[in-house]
Amino acid sequence: MSTRHHWYDIAKSRLAGLFIGLVTIVPVLVSSSPSYGGDRRYLASRWRQRAFNRNSCVRPQNNNIYPVARRSNQVDDYHGTLIADPYRWLESPDTDETKAWVAAQNKLTQEVIGAISQRQVIKNYLQEIWDYEKRGMPRQRGNRTFFYNNTGLQNQDILYVIDSPGAEPRVLIDPNTFSEDGTVSLSQTATTDDGNFTAYSVSISGSDWEEWKVRNVSTGKDLPDHLKWIKFSGVSWTKDNKGFYYSCFDEPAEEVKPDQVLYYQKLYYHRLGTSQAEDTLVYERPDQKEWAFSGSVTDDGRYLLIYIWAGSEKTNRIFYKDLSVENSEVIELFNKNDAQYSLVDNDGTVFWFNTNLNAPRGRVIAVDIAKSTPDAPAITELIAESEATLEDISAIGNRFIVSYLKDAHGQVKEFSLDGKFVREVLLPGLGSVSGFSGKRNDTETYYWFSSYTVPYAIYHYDIASGQSTVHFQPKVDFDPSQFVSRQVFFTSKDGTRVPMFLNYRKGLKLDGTNPTYLYGYGGFNYSITPSFSADMLAWMKMGGVYVEVCLRGGGEYGEEWHAAGKKSNKQNVFDDFIAAAEWLIANKYTCSEKLAIAGASNGGLLVGACLAQRPDLFGAACPDVGVMDMLRYHKFTIGWAWASEYGSSDDPKDFQTLYAYSPLHNIKQGTKYPATYVTTADHDDRVVPGHSYKFVAALQWAQRGQGLCIIRIETKAGHGAGTPMDKYIDASADKWAFLVKALKIPCYKVNQLKK
Fold first, then answer.
1. DSSP 157-215
2. Sign of the C-alpha dihedral, residues 413, 433, 518, 108?
3. For residue 356, is pLDDT > 50?
4. Torsion of the alpha carbons at 251, 255, 260 and 263, rounded to the nearest 10
5. Chain centroid to CA 329: how far?
6. Roughly how many angstroms between the first and final C-alpha of the chain, as a whole number?
7. DSSP character for 91?
8. 27 compared with 132, residue with greater pLDDT
């Protein structure tokens, strides 16, 4: 089984960024626009730079101003609407002009952050609080046990192996040796069932591109096998341990550009000891350039399941091959793309699937492939849809262990293989839970549990008795009894009930003056659930309130909740976030001047849109690696795949929706915007940094208030995964320091971080 090893990345992503650089232009529309009302003469005029300098909010000690960004005459015609894109040139990261602009912006940001004296206090605390041992869940393969470990501040987690029960762990793969600066990371691993070989992938500077190698577990040495041009793919070993299935793109004829659009993924089989050029093409669809493939071998070794999806839509097709028959055909099992299907296990020709087919919150079905046709799969329901959202399921201990989300926190139940309820697994509290992996005949398994005040702990679970015992408990230097973590519900603009988690130190006074950090995502069926982050402790110890809101567009309440926040319904997400902010103010947790909003990737879009729609409501905004140009996002890397979530400006109807909320296209000249701290990375090949570059350029040009607008552009980094610990701590210290300045947090509160 392939698994990502960064078991604390979820916590990191809350503050550092996660999903889908940093200066935008104020789009000058030649026709009518929601930003400017179509005043051509006003739009055509340019503010004199000298006047802008006088009004600029940026006045570091050396009197630097915002770096000048050239405004071009680029205009595009969208279905009869002419829209200016004066900072189009910032989409090209390798030009001298863009490089100079990036360098100037980073210099300005370093000067601003460097002048904040409390920044070092914050960094010192983060280094101390993050310096604790972190461990991943054990994975049994043959007689060997594999797990990840980090002693505290190591840049990358190390993969260890225990060769036999009672033996001492030894290092199998240490990615800290891959590069001096820690920017080359270990992304994924997949080990053979006998534990003798581990395939692993390497990512450079946070890129989504991965190169796969194979390590002999006994010797600790790599085999000659080396696979390239792989993106968005794991690997699945055959049960004879002689090779594995993987998906990749064709080797490009010329140098790959970071923003290059990708199509035509193919599924291959690689046999150990051979070159990639000799790999067997298993499946491709030249007639479907957007289709992506993932091959997964069933535990009995007989079948290859081929998952097929297009874009980011939470639906897929399932095809399969019978590996016991030489040169068998690919059979279509589910070919309508009408739901999401995920194989749990199989018993001969009977396959068990987790699906949302006719069940938006998920259910479990059995399908007998011997009795099925593509038009009429033989389906029997085993576990019906419930009020809770089905998240994951394992067939282990000859039972189904099913993980649910109930009001965005974890719940786990056991069922017999014929679908009868057995019992609920008792968890340590309200939080997030994941794990329960293994084989069907295993008698034990592991899971991790975390909440906002409980660090990621690993539990051993005995299936026969239903008893959980602590396997690993991290030792973090804080007292959880000194903090409050609770869930509330508020009503959004259209009357929808939305959950939200509040976290703060005990004794908080509800006087409307508390600095508050409101985090959201709201898209792609991704759920916000309770999880621990040492960064959050720093914020709360400074007197801050840390808030996460479960917006529509996420997966907290199943597919209906997701659909209520995508495409033409996307405004619901922004309305939910704005309503959350208004609830916090009305209930005297904070006030507009003390309220910061934050989000990453799709969450960066959220922050940018809300900043544009309600600049009066917030004191600061922190969009990270955000999708800011909704009219052109689909023209870069994998952006086209998000059209099922957002729609596309190529469609006249979608264009109107996207244009109405696109952060870049709704920045208004002369508006007083809150202090804004944008972050991106120069190697982000998922959400290209041009989104953030253009947004910042536009905001700096339009800003007429006192709110600072700066951008931090991380070098040799990507969309967030694999970020070295030292870079992560520096980035977190910079952000908190910015908010200390922007929200006017007193020095004595920051000094509470000192020990």
1. -EEEEE-STTPPPEEEE-GGGS-TTS-EEEEEEEE-TTSSEEEEEEEETT-SEEEEEEE
2. negative
3. yes
4. -10
5. 36
6. 44
7. G
8. 132
Q: How far apart are CA 753 and CA 755, in angstroms?
A: 6
Radius of gyration of the chain (CA): 26
Cα gap 525→527, rounded to integer Å: 6
> What DSSP designation does 478 have?
S
Return the active site residues: 601, 719
Q: Do residues 23 and 700 lie in contact, with contact meaning Cβ atoms separated by under 8 Å?
A: yes
3-class SS of residue 483: strand
Token pair, residue 169, equals 């762990």
Decide: helix, strand or coil at residue 533: coil
286 burial (CB, 10 Å; 0-12 / 13-18 / 19+) is: exposed
Q: What are phi and psi of 32, to 5 degrees?
A: -65, 150
SS3 string of 225-266?
EEEEEEECCCCEECCCCCEEEEEECCCCCCCCCCCCCCCCCE
- Residue 528 is which amino acid? I
Alpha helices in 68-187 (DSSP H): 96-114, 119-129
Contact 694/729 with Cβ under 8 angstroms? no
Summarised one tens digit per residue, pLDDT across range 359-394 is 999 999 999 999 998 888 999 999 999 999 999 999
| Distance from C-alpha of 688 to C-alpha of 693, rounded to nearest angstrom | 9
For 363, the token pair is 């259910």
Q: Are the C-beta atoms of 559 and 362 separated by less than 8 Å?
A: no
DSSP state of 376: B
How far apart, in whole angstroms, are the C-alpha atoms of residue 405 and residue 568? 26
Rounded distance between C-alpha atoms, residue 59 and residue 708, angstroms: 9
Q: Which of 750, 754, 722, 752 is nearest to 13 (CA)?
A: 722
**What is the amino acid identity at position 150?**
N
As a three-state string, the secondary structure of 705-754 is CCCCEEEEEECCCCCCCCCCHHHHHHHHHHHHHHHHHHCCCCHHHHHHHC
Contact present, 407 and 385 (Cβ < 8 Å) = no
H or E stretch covering 444: strand 444-451
pLDDT tens-place string over residues 519-564: 999 999 999 999 999 999 999 999 999 999 999 999 999 999 999 9
Gap between the Cα atoms of 466 and 38, Å rounded? 66
Q: Which CATH class is domain 21-127+478-753?
A: alpha beta
Helix, strand, coil shares, percent, the chain, to 5: 25, 30, 45
Q: Are 295 and 243 in contact (CB under 8 A)?
A: no
Relative to beta strand 209-216, strand 197-204 is antiparallel
> What is the CA angle 335-336-337, rounded to 5?
100
DSSP H helices in 361-487: none
Alpha helices in 614-717 (DSSP H): 643-646, 652-661, 690-702
What is the average per-residue pLDDT within 720-743?
A: 88
Spatial separation of the C-alpha atoms in residues 462 and 470, rounded to whole Å? 12
Q: How far is CA 367 from CA 293, 327, 379, 515, 607, in A?
A: 21, 24, 5, 53, 43
What's the whole-model pTM score? Answer: 0.87
Check residue 16 and give its pLDDT. 29
Specify whether the CB–CB gap between 716 and 183 falls below 8 A. Answer: yes
3 state SS of 124: helix
Sequence-distant (6+) residues with CB within 8 A of 304 are 236, 245, 282, 295, 296, 297, 298, 320, 321, 323
pLDDT, one tens digit per residue, over 641-688 is 999 999 999 999 999 999 999 999 999 988 999 999 999 988 677 889
Tokens of 350: 């009977």
* Helix 725-742, helix 96-114: angle, nearest 10: 70
